[in-house]
Amino acid sequence: MARKPGKGRKTGGRDTFVVASKVKSYVRGKDLMASSELANGLSARVQELLDGAITRCEGNGRRTVRPVDL
What secondary structure does DSSP assign to 3-68, as a single string? Predict the structure, then answer.
């Protein structure tokens, strides 16, 4: 199902792939502080990982992205 335009959060032209409260909670659980930009940076890295996985999947002639593509 396609997403409706205007739905979801965007960060500098990128989608948000992580839940900021979960990221902050995890970091705080390690007795550290999380900056307000951490979730955006993590989302950018997730998108880079997914883009690479998609490229690898297509290069292997598949249409299903698998964990091995990461």
Answer: PPTT-S-EETTEE--S-HHHHHHHHHTTT----TTHHHHHHHHHHHHHHHHHHHHHHTT-SS--GG
Amino acid identity, residue 16?
Answer: T
Integer angstrom CA distances of residue 3 from 6, 7, 15, 37, 67? 9, 7, 12, 25, 24
Q: Give residue-wise pLDDT tens across range 4-49.
A: 454 555 555 678 999 999 999 999 999 999 999 999 999 999 999 9
Question: Quick check: 20 and 39 in contact, CB under 8 A?
Answer: yes
